[in-house]
Amino acid sequence: MPLMESPTALLILWAVIGYLLGSIPFGLVVTRAMGLGDVRAIGSGNIGATNVLRTGSKGAALATLLLDAGKAIAAVILARIFAAEDAAQIAGAAAFAGHCYPVWLRFRGGKGVATILGLLIALSWPVGLAACATWLVAAFAFRYSSLAALLAAGLAPAWALLLGEGRIVLLAVVLAAILYARHAANIARLRAGTEPRIGAK
């Protein structure tokens, strides 16, 4: 973590801003805007890009992916511009929390995959790109979106250490733990061999 030098009130402000940005349910907004119905009534009921893809619209899924990543990037960049690095990390973490537990949807949000990748890119682009590459390699190798996400998040702290970004290691560990908790059902299905593969109908 960076040194906490900003006033507490300022950090709280950026936590609130980050949370509000992160809590925008873009998966729900995009599917409704495109006339695809309520994504919560489709597939797993999740509002993330993977479930949006189950509507049959790759465009909607891509838009959701980019917007969910973008809201974390926006939170970090805005806090970095108008405050400092400690506020940037807090705003980014709050954006991730907002995505997973949005107040607008009774705290039932997404699993945070795109958001955590966007957050890592904004905090340290080499670590973020390494995490994205981990997801892509795992997804192509194993054909499980959830397993790719678990590996990308789980290896992010190691990538941060290897790439000399010790300031974000603790945050990466905490976010990975939350993401693993959000994927508890997926982990159970992976162990049972019942988790659907990418592209499976």
From TrEMBL:
Pathway: Lipid metabolism; phospholipid metabolism. Its EC number is 2.3.1.275. It is found in: Cell membrane. The chain crosses the membrane at residues 12-30, 116-138, 158-181. It catalyses: an acyl phosphate + sn-glycerol 3-phosphate = a 1-acyl-sn-glycero-3-phosphate + phosphate. It is a multi-pass membrane protein. It comes from the Bacteria. GO terms for molecular function: glycerol-3-phosphate O-acyltransferase activity. Keywords: Acyltransferase, Cell membrane, Lipid biosynthesis, Lipid metabolism, Membrane, Phospholipid biosynthesis, Phospholipid metabolism, Transferase, Transmembrane, Transmembrane helix. InterPro entries: G3P_acylTferase_PlsY. It is an enzyme of class 2 (transferase). Belongs to the PlsY family. Probably interacts with PlsX. Catalyzes the transfer of an acyl group from acyl-phosphate (acyl-PO(4)) to glycerol-3-phosphate (G3P) to form lysophosphatidic acid (LPA). This enzyme utilizes acyl-phosphate as fatty acyl donor, but not acyl-CoA or acyl-ACP. PANTHER family: GLYCEROL-3-PHOSPHATE ACYLTRANSFERASE-RELATED, INNER MEMBRANE PROTEIN YGIH. NCBIfam families: glycerol-3-phosphate 1-O-acyltransferase PlsY. This is Glycerol-3-phosphate acyltransferase. It comes from Limimaricola variabilis.
